[in-house]
Every structure is written in C-alpha cells, then in structure tokens.
Model the fold of this input.
Amino acid sequence: MQEVFLKLLQKLDSYQPRAGVPFEHWVSRLTVRTCLDALRAERARPEWRMADLSDGETEWLDYLLNKQADTPHVPDREAKSIVTRLLAQLSPSDRLVLTLLDLEEKSTQEISELTGWTRPMVKMRAMRARRKLRGIAQEMKLDT
Done:
C-alpha cells in the first residue's frame, strides 16, 4: 500500500482527466501496475530467510561469514546446500565464474579460454561476485 500511495503522490501531476473516466479508474490502474511490478520483482529475486535454513546450513553460514577457524561438525551436504542457495542468488555470469574458479578449481587462464573473457576480467568478475555473495549472506544473517 505504501508503494501505491507513493506512486500516486509522485504521479498525481501527470493525471489527465478524461470524459467518462473517473479518477478512481486511474488510481486502480496504477495500483494494479504497482502490484504486478512487485510480483515480477519477487519472481526475479526470490527471498529466503534464516528460518528457511536447517541448523547445519545456519552453522555453515555463520562459519562463512565469521571466518571461524573450526569448520562446523555437520554433514558436507549442509555446506553444499547453503552454497547452492547462495549461488542461486547471483547472476549467471557471476555464478559461472565462481563455480569454475572456486568449486571446480580451474585457473584464470582456463576460465579465460572457456569463456572468451580476458584474465583480468575473470579476476575482476570473481572479486565482484564474491563481494555480492558476501552481501547476500550478510543480508540473510540480518533477516533473522
């Protein structure tokens, strides 16, 4: 509702009265568009919270964010699950570079040959993707 009211206030000066079309129709059309935009955005970026994670996934997320010395004593599938969830939040190119570099342990030269990107571009994409991944994980932690 707040977004609808904000848009109404922002676009009120662009309202053009028309014969036979009441103001309420304009308001309802703007409301429907705002709701559809919100649904499209939700579909493009599904949200998940700490409550969606198992205890093991929560431990791994804490480990990844806090860089603790001791790895969690939970099954590796929990680590794979949290990494998969985090990677799913990235764009395809970010996901690709991190998968090739960190999970498949390919060199920047190999990734450069596979993707057609230059080696400095591979390094820059990896750095930015890791930063995005860290931000996603921190947002997840804050949403507890």
Summary: The helical segments are 2-11, 23-44, 55-66, 76-88, 92-103, 108-115, 119-142. The mean pLDDT is 78. DSSP finds seven helices and no strands in the chain. The chain has two domains: 2-44, 50-142.
